[in-house]
Write a structure and sequence with these properties.
By secondary structure, this protein is mostly helical. It has three domains: about 5-130, Serine Threonine Protein Phosphatase 5, Tetratricopeptide repeat, CATH 1.25.40; about 200-375, 3-Layer(aba) Sandwich (Rossmann fold), CATH 3.40.50; about 380-450, Helicase, Ruva Protein, domain 3 (Orthogonal Bundle). It contains 20 helices and six strands. A six-stranded mixed beta sheet has the order 1-3-4-5-2-6, with helices on both faces. The radius of gyration is 29 Å and the shape is elongated. The termini are far apart.
Length: about 475
């Protein structure tokens, strides 16, 4: 029988036995092999309707769609496979083909990752179009930590328009095959995208933070002491980890304090910026959040720090778009964890200048159940901060107390700017003298006269409105002493 005769016989058999899954799949495979792509697509769709979870059928359908240039539909078919902890290698190669026209970097990632697992799936033509050579095998990762995941194409918008995650990672990175969290969904939604935030190890400790004794003690009780004395804390059912919301005026040292908390423990530190989470494509932000939390759990003990958290945790009642509310919902779900031990050993620190805009659900016990005000430094703290900032610079005998008294209302960022300005002036003098000229108290005083506090009074003025008129719960009571002298 000729090939066409064989296909006709299979078509007739499938017509007479439409529920015969092996027959339909065989017919679809033969149509694909013979180049009858439109008919093969129809048969694969029919077979997939009979067995929605069949990986081979989904891969066959995706291959047909890619060959026809229907890349969006191909990625939709591949989505359930790419979300698997060990996705079929052929699915990854097809995903790379489908992504290539719109996101070469993401396509290169998927191709490298897949072919590194199974070199027999290498496609020299595709590799040439991607502009890459043949990847080497991914390096082994230590157990039980799971390494970073391959970048996932972004999920589709509600109208099923294509969308891809732009990734900042180098195409030379070959992610290793490990279990991936569930995807956010959509035609490009797969497992969590590879987080763009990086794991650091902070050299800063609490000795590098002047003042803030109350804040330091709160952080010690949350992470440091439970790790150092686990038996004692276990007796009371307390574990290392939890959530702390740091709030206060801009420049008061919230980020510096978070780094110091990680350094004090010797824990990993993940500084999460808005660009690491927020994405223009629907569903991508949620997946980025999930990936970031997963990375922190793999590196516990870990301090996971979210700066400007009000952009991720704003009040849902103020939001007009469902997508924004979904980000808040995902954030809450990650704070809760899949079980009571999910976030053990992960201290989630968040900082904001506008705590009154944060959804009240975040202040529920078990989430950011401890709100800590990071105040502007008092005179003693300012003197200590100036001493720390000048300790590695040539200096004469310094009267930091005098400078501290002259810098009322200055926060850490202001003091840093003051020292930088004084150092610049001293550098000009040193260049003229041909030798290092020690920094003196007068240099700092001269710089202080040219500066004004940046934001404390303005911030306290805003806070006053909430303290006096929207404080039914008593959440802002600790701000009251700071408002008494505000005119």
């Amino acid at each position: 029988m000729t090939d066409e005769a064989v296909l006709n016989a299979l078509r007739e058999a499938a017509r007479l036995s439409p529920e015969n899954l092996p027959l339909r799949r065989h017919l679809a495979d033969q149509l694909l092999a013979s180049g009858n792509l439109s008919q093969a697509e129809h048969e694969y769709q029919a077979a997939l309707a009979l067995s929605p979870g069949d990986h081979g059928i989904a891969i066959g359908l995706a291959e047909v769609l890619v060959r026809q240039g229907k890349n969006e539909a191909a990625l939709t078919a591949l989505d359930p496979l790419l979300a698997m902890p060990e996705h079929p290698v052929r699915a990854g190669v097809l995903a790379a083909q489908a992504m290539l026209p719109v996101n070469r970097m993401a396509a290169a990632h998927w191709y490298r990752y897949s072919v590194a697992r199974d070199p027999s799936q290498a496609d020299p033509e595709l590799a040439h179009r991607l502009g890459i050579g043949q990847p080497s095998a991914p390096p082994p990762s230590p157990a039980p930590a799971a390494p970073a995941q391959p970048p996932s194409p972004a999920p589709a918008a509600p109208a099923q328009q294509p969308s891809l995650i732009p990734t900042a990672h180098s195409p030379s990175v070959v992610p290793a095959p490990h279990a991936q969290p569930q995807a956010a969904g959509g035609p490009y939604g797969s497992a969590d995208a590879e987080p763009t935030a990086e794991v650091e190890h902070s050299p800063v400790t609490f000795t590098d933070v002047a003042g803030m004794d109350t804040v330091k003690e709160a952080l010690r009780m949350k992470l440091l002491l439970p790790t150092q004395q686990p038996e004692l804390f276990a007796a009371y059912g307390k574990r290392a980890g939890g959530g702390v919301l740091l709030y206060g005026p801009p420049g008061a040292g919230k980020t510096h304090l978070a780094r110091a908390a990680a350094g004090e423990l010797g824990a990993a530190f993940v500084n999460v910026g808005l660009a690491d989470i927020l994405d223009m494509w629907t569903g991508s932000s949620e997946r980025n959040l999930r990936a970031t939390f997963a990375m922190a759990r793999r590196n516990r003990p870990c301090v996971l720090f979210f700066d400007e958290v009000d952009a991720l945790a704003a009040r849902r009642s103020d939001m007009r778009q469902a997508h924004s509310r979904q980000i808040v919902n995902q954030f809450l779900a990650e704070l809760d964890g899949v079980d009571e031990h999910a976030n053990e050993g992960v201290l989630v620190l968040a900082a904001t200048n506008a705590p009154w805009y944060i959804d009240a659900a975040f202040r529920r016990p078990g989430r950011f159940d401890q709100m800590v005000f990071v105040p502007p430094p008092d005179t003693v703290a300012r003197a200590a901060m100036l001493s720390l900032m000048c300790r590695d610079k040539p200096q004469a005998k310094m009267d930091f107390d005098k400078v501290a008294r002259a810098t009322e209302g200055f926060v850490g960022a202001d003091l840093k700017g003051l020292v930088d300005r004084a150092v610049e002036a001293k550098l000009h003098e040193s260049i003229r003298a041909g030798r290092p000229v020690p920094l003196a108290t007068g240099d700092l005083m001269a710089a202080a006269k040219t500066m004004r506090p940046t934001a404390v009074r303005e911030w306290l003025g805003t806070a006053r409105n909430y303290v006096l008129h929207a404080n039914e719960s008593g959440a802002w009571d600790e701000l009251l002493p700071w408002l008494r002298d505000l005119r």
